[in-house]
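Deliverable D4.2, example record:
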Amino acid sequence: MKVSDYLTRDEVAYFTAKSDWQAWRMVVGNWLAIGLIFAAAAAWPNPLTIIAAVILLAGRQLALSVLMHDCGHRTLFRSARLNDIVGQWLCALPVMNDQPAYSRGHLEHHRKAGTPEDPDLPNYRDYPVSRESFRRKVIRDLTGQTGLKLMAYIFRGASGVVSSEKRASALPFVQQLSVQLLLFLALAACGIGWTYLLWVVAYMTVFMLVIRVRQIAEHAAVPDLYDPDSRLNTRTVEAPWWQRMIFAPCGVNYHMEHHFMASVPCYKLRELRQHLRERDALDGVPVFHGYGQLLRHVVAA
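Output generated by the structure prediction step:
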């Protein structure tokens, strides 16, 4: 599947054009949503609002991860500098990630997707799985076991246990902790410092499950995981808005289109899908409507 088969030069220029307005709208809008979730939980603290806040915050944490991902591709903002600074400080560090390190691994995934050398294969190559296997994964995620494993990995990297470059690996960890402290201090200054615990709980539990669902939605049990054609090794899920709030913010559900042309900003992927559909590029490609249908496909009966 070649870009030139379905897009003219002018169309490529249109779809790859970046908008700082759209980029700031998504970044600022996401942080405003996070602030509103904290404020609502603080104003009406009860079991229902706490549970809702944890779930919604996990969706916003995924949104930050998606924006980090786009900044790593240098597709969110027009300038490389804005992609680097905003992607690291407003997107990656709040979710305990490091954009430069993430980008190196992710770009390798793009280069080798559809081959046995894809570094992300362990996340989805064993699907479909049994219900019992998936149930165990969900339990590990929601009870914090996956989150603790991730935090242990981050700490080992910062301490130099898993890296020979101790100084280089420690700096992102210090930055991550600094941003977490700033978030707590901002909430404390508003008199609702206790709500920071919701951020931690969301990250350690629901966010781990959300990330898992996103990974399997993109590449698990696809028509042919080892075919270089993105229509065969990658999936797009056309989901309703309320599912996208949690599992697919910022257009991340249009993953096949992203692999088809990674230089397209996330705010244009939906339009690109429509364009490809009109050019008959998606004929015969399985269509999934919602994450319920997806999970029924990747979890064996």
